[in-house]
């Protein structure tokens, strides 16, 4: 990570009011390869971004700090995360709009679309509909990038299954049932006649089966 990237991470994490979130966001931004991977694809795009399941808005803040200028809409079902993110966006990031919303009712949109670590937490029928709705919202020249855990039977897949199972066992609150899609299921929603595809592992330094699926509309 370059010195300027380190400064960006330090700056973004310092903007959160809660100490735990300052700590969490710093680690996440520093070690998660999904953020630079997103920037590599849409950093110079003039199209807006819809970030589905945006959490507190870390992707939006990271892209802004690295110079991505178009407006960004982030939506998430978790109202607390959205409020925490809005407090930062309202004061520091013009054109970043975080709102409570569900993937089952996406707003009208045309541009780039992101969904990081959300798909496998959705029920199977919702996944299929979400993928179709996302594809419709990708403008010509725009990207849709998805990070998820595909069901491919690998040891990394089993390791991710175990981690989710363990998290459910020790969790006080109800955690969503995890339904792992296959790569083929996702790719089928982005036909080759309309999209060029880039599908590759994005494990970072983890034993988990994270993949990046990026589709650019021709
Ligand atoms: C593992 S977090 C990922 C957050 C963020 N994308 C990131 O990479 O930092 C999954 C997020 O998906 C959100 N989520 C789960 N179900 C959703 C739904 N049906 N519609 C919108 N967001 C949802 C959760 O509230 C949570 O913030």
What are its keywords?
binds S-adenosylmethionine; seven-stranded mixed β-sheet
Short description:
By secondary structure, this protein is an alpha/beta fold. Helix content is 41%, strand content 18%. The protein has eight helices and seven strands.
Can you tell me about this structure?
The structure is a single chain. The protein has helices at residues 3-14, 19-31, 34-42, 58-65, 79-92, 124-136, 155-170, 183-187; strands spanning 49-52, 72-76, 96-100, 112-116, 143-148, 195-201, 211-217. With 218 residues, the protein is an alpha/beta fold. The chain has a single domain (3-217), classed as Rossmann fold (3-Layer(aba) Sandwich). The chain has a 7-stranded mixed sheet. Strand 1, helix 4 (58-65) and strand 2 (72-76) form a beta-alpha-beta unit. The longest helix is centred in the last third of the chain and has 16 residues, at 155-170. It binds S-adenosylmethionine.
Write the layout of secondary structure elements.
Blueprint: H1 3-14, H2 19-31, H3 34-42, E1 49-52, H4 58-65, E2 72-76, H5 79-92, E3 96-100, E4 112-116, H6 124-136, E5 143-148, H7 155-170, H8 183-187, E6 195-201, E7 211-217
Parallel strand pairs: 1-2, 1-4, 2-3, 4-5
Antiparallel strand pairs: 5-7, 6-7
Bound molecules: S-adenosylmethionine (SAM).
